[in-house]
Each structure stands twice: as structure tokens, then as C-alpha cells.
Design a protein that fits this description.
- By secondary structure, the protein is an alpha/beta fold.
- It has a single domain (28-195), classed as Glutaredoxin, CATH 3.40.30.10.
- The chain has helices at 2-25, 37-45, 61-73, 102-106, 123-132, 184-195, and strands at 30-31, 50-56, 83-89, 114-118, 135-136, 139-140, 146-150, 166-169.
- It has a 6-stranded mixed sheet with strand order 1-4-3-2-7-8, with helices on both faces. Strands 5-6 form a two-stranded antiparallel sheet.
- Helix 3 (61-73) links the parallel strand 2 and strand 3.
- The relative contact order is 0.18.
């Protein structure tokens, strides 16, 4: 009997451990499509805080490195509700990523105030590009692997997101050369400068 109870307890403990591990692997995200209505509502609901917006492909090596750098230099050190981070995952690379790739990328950001979105159509990159006026030689450039920060007064009124207070990118291979390349340490400094304007 004692042996049976020990075996039963070990089995239950094993199941609990597996379930905990599986729940830690899951990251919640919201699916958005053209117009990004839920993202817009969440962004505006966070008015009064500093808001970071990252747009990444969840399997792109450069994007993943960017997320890891942002975690290291900013988010893992700034678990502050006055900073809300919105991450939009868009399919860009071929073969295109799937929804199942989002949680793996999301795990790179360790902060309680990060919100993830999956945009399967990729429409958000076009909408953001229009809002930023992101062009090379007069042609629109799809906005991905871009990193933006907004001050506490920013409001998203129209279909396109508002102009950010600061913007960085990793799009030089597409010919974007007149905007700052991603430097997570500089980005973190800009965020902290804006955070200093928000009351605790």
C-alpha cells in the first residue's frame, strides 16, 4: 500500500510539473486584422503611460535578436506599469511563420506589462508604414523589424498609428538609411527619459 501511495504521489507531482512547464511555454496573444481595432483600443486605454511598439516577424533572426536585446537593456530592468509594451507579430519571411511561432518569440521578453498580437494577414505592417511615411525612392517600405516609443499624451485617432516620439529600425537592407538603426541601449535611454515625465 505504501509503495502504491508513493507511486501515486510521484505520478501526480510529475503531472503538475509538466502542466506548469506547459503553461509557462504558452504566451497569450490577441489576433488582429486590418485596422488593428483591439490594438488601437489597448494603446489608447494606456494613455498616460509610455508605450513601446515593436513590430517583428516571430521567426526572423534579426527580430529575435532585437527582442532579446530589448529584454536585456530595457524590459527585464523596467517592470514598471508606467511602461506598456505592445508587440505585433507579422508574417514576413518565407515560408511564413504561423501562430504557433508567436509564443516562442514572446518568451524572449520577461516583463509583466507586455502585450502580444498576431496579425496573420500582415496588414499592420502596411498601415504602420503609411502612418510613418516610410519610403525609399518614393516607394512604400513595409514596416517590420521596427521599434517605436510614444509619450504619455499620444492618442491613436485614425486607422494608422500616430507618429512616435522615437523610432528605430533594422531595415537598412531594404535601403532605409535616413532613420536610426536599432540600438537597444539608446532606445532604453529614450524610454527612461519619457518615463521621467510620468508621475509614479
Amino acid at each position: 500500500m505504501r509503495r502504491f501511495l508513493c507511486s501515486l504521489l510521484l505520478a501526480v507531482a510529475s503531472l503538475v510539473t509538466v502542466n506548469i512547464a506547459r503553461s509557462e511555454d504558452r504566451a497569450t496573444y490577441t489576433v488582429i486584422d486590418k485596422g488593428a481595432a483591439q490594438l488601437r483600443a489597448d494603446f489608447n486605454a494606456a494613455k498616460g503611460s509610455v508605450r513601446a511598439l515593436f513590430v517583428v516577424d516571430p521567426v526572423c533572426p534579426g527580430c529575435l535578436r532585437g527582442l532579446d536585446d530589448m529584454n536585456k537593456d530595457l524590459l527585464s530592468k523596467t517592470n514598471d506599469p508606467r511602461l506598456q509594451t505592445f508587440v505585433v507579430h507579422v508574417p514576413v519571411l518565407t515560408p511564413p511563420p504561423k501562430a504557433k511561432d508567436v509564443p516562442k518569440a514572446a518568451k524572449l521578453l520577461r516583463n509583466d506589462h507586455v502585450h502580444h498580437y498576431w496579425n496573420p494577414s500582415g496588414s499592420f505592417g502596411e498601415e504602420l508604414s503609411e502612418g510613418l511615411g516610410l519610403k525609399v525612392d518614393g516607394e512604400d517600405v513595409y514596416a517590420w523589424d521596427v521599434w517605436l516609443v510614444y509619450g504619455p499624451d499620444a492618442v491613436w485617432d485614425g486607422e494608422q498609428p500616430p507618429k512616435p516620439d522615437y523610432f528605430m529600425h533594422q531595415l537598412w537592407v531594404l535601403g532605409v538609411t535616413d532613420l536610426p538603426r536599432l540600438d537597444s541601449q539608446v532606445f532604453a535611454q529614450r524610454v527612461h527619459k519619457l518615463l521621467a515625465t510620468v508621475r509614479p
